[in-house]
Amino acid sequence: MQSKTYKYNLSNFSSKHDSTLSDYISLLKPRVMSLAVFTSICGVILAPISLHPFFFFLSILCISIGAGASGAINMWYDRDIDSLMERTKKRPIPKGRVEPLDALGFGVILSIISIIVLGLSVNYQAAMLLAFSIFFYIFIYTVWLKRRTSQNIVIGGAAGAFPPVIGWVCSTAELSIFPILLFCIIFFWTPPHFWALALYKDIEYSKANVPMLPVVRGKRVTKRQILIYSVLLSFISILPFMYGFAGFFYLISSLLLNAYFCYLSFQLFMSEDKKNSFYAPKLFKYSILYLYLIFSSLVLDSIIK
Asked: What pTM was computed for the model?
């Protein structure tokens, strides 16, 4: 699928001296980065080996910078479609607050710094995972999948599932089943989360020529897929208890959180398309809260145990 022609004139860009610190912070996608920060912290805490507080801080800082750097490079690449969508047209590049090459350089430099510092100060295994997560988000999701397939979020969702795994490896320098389960929870959470957003932003994605599922397959198919993934997520999220990594506190919390997630997904599935603007945002907002609560439950359960 070909991308749209740029809708803004580069000559309208303000001088780079007009760019502020907040503009560059916006390039890092702070709201998206906050989820990566939180889940990576949970990954470090849940690991069986404790990190020294200084290296704990350094690990989270590097993972955060790496996630933010990916966002900056993503904004550079997607600057054409960002200018077409109401949700993204106020980002620093479409607004002319930051020049495209400055954003690209900013993202590349931060990526390199985060990987090198993590490798030299913590361990090389975590640094390699961080490097792969940045590569995956930029080249697999942003460049390859996003504009070519309606399954972009399904496959590309892996990029957002790496932070807790990297956090775990920062502590242990190795992988095991538990961090893979943490990865799977986020991986199966991502499609219903983003498709709920796409349901009430489908017109914007259509204008930008991005083949999100509601645009390509229709709203009914999308709502069915949301329900299917919600049910799958409810089973996946119980696995930490089944494998003995979590106790009954987590089990009860998970059952309650997933019951409401499936309830909202079923409500959306049964609703008429004209009511998507009510049910889809409700599910989207709850899905964010869900991820925070499900990982918080794992951490609290480990403390209780």
From this structure: 0.91
User: What is the phi/psi pair of residue 94, to 5°?
Assistant: -60, -30
Query: pLDDT tens-digit profile of 54-81?
Result: 999 999 999 999 999 999 999 999 999 9
Q: 174-203 b/e with 16+ CB inside 10 Å = b?
A: eeeebbebbbbbbbbbbbbbbbbbbbbbbe
The domain locations on the chain are 1-175, 177-305
Site of tokens 């993202």: 107
| Structure confidence by residue, pLDDT tens digits, 240-259 | 999 999 999 999 999 999 99
CATH fold of 1-175: Tetracycline Repressor; domain 2 (1.10.357)
How far apart CA 98 and CA 48 sit, in angstroms, is 43
CA distance 83 to 195: 21
Concatenate the DSSP letters of all residues of 25-93 into one string: HHHT-HHHHHHHHHHHHHHHHHSSSPPPHHHHHHHHHHHHHHHHHHHHHHHHHTHHHHTT-TTTTTSTT
Rounded CA separation 72/137 (Å): 11
